[in-house]
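sorry for the late reply, my laptop died twice this morning and i had to redo everyting from scratch. anyway the thing you sent over, i finally got around to it. pasting the sequence first so we're on the same page, its 191 residues, then the predicted structure underneath. double check i copied it right bc i was rushing
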Amino acid sequence: MQLVFATNNLNKLTEVQRLIPSHIKLLSLKDIGCEVDIPETQNTIEGNAIQKAEHIKTKYGYDCFADDTGLEVEALNGEPGVFSARYAGEQRHAEDNMNLLLDNLHKKTNRNAQFKTVIALHLNNDLKTFTGICKGEITQEKHGDKGFGYDPIFKAEGYTKTFAEIALEEKNKVSHRGKAIQQLVAFLSNY
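ok and here's the structure:
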């Protein structure tokens, strides 16, 4: 079986390749000649994942899956949510996003947050979604240099270190994306 993972984010691609069984050949957007940013114009994380998967299936004809992820912070009424990648602007700069989030949480005692990933799978003209959630909290400052995005300021429940301080294998066991991918893999194994 071969599937396209509809992402231009090489960090995500690396994470997911480690989770997908070896009998599934994972193709990148570059592999299929898609070098444009796929539209993400929906107002929900689920909607964006579905939109990206449908774009690849419709324009390129490949079975595929796409994900969208958001960081939802309780004290900020779920922000940045669907706007996580461009929270501080269209330049999609992780440092700017983290700095803005830390500024917006300044003097707030409630640091509860969760990462949410939705994967939309388009397989043989059927569409299925899988959702992974990782609860945790936002730290007061950045720690670590692994990972990407908000990893340096997110500490999962039960952990004393941020996602940017733990090994990728450990992160994949508890992360939102890891949980959603586990559901995807289980589905594909029984398909």
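The longest strand covers residues 126-138.
thats about all i looked at so far, will dig more tmrw
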